[in-house]
Amino acid sequence: MTFYNILLFLLIIFNFQLQDQYIDSLIDNKQYIVAEKAIINSIKENPNSEILIKKLGDCYGYIKDWDNAIIQYQKLVELDSDNSLYNYKLGGTLAAKANETNMFKSLSLINTSKKYLLKSVELDYKNKPAMWALIQIFTELPQLLGGSKSLALQYANELENISQIDGLFAKKYIYDFKDDYKMSNIYLNKIVENIDSFNTEYDYNYLNFSIGELCANNKINLDRGILQLRYYIENFTSRDRSTPDYAYYLLAKIYLHKNDFSKANEQLDNAFVYYNSNNIKNNSLYKELLKLKKLISQ
Question: What is the pLDDT of residue 4?
Answer without folding.
Answer: 53
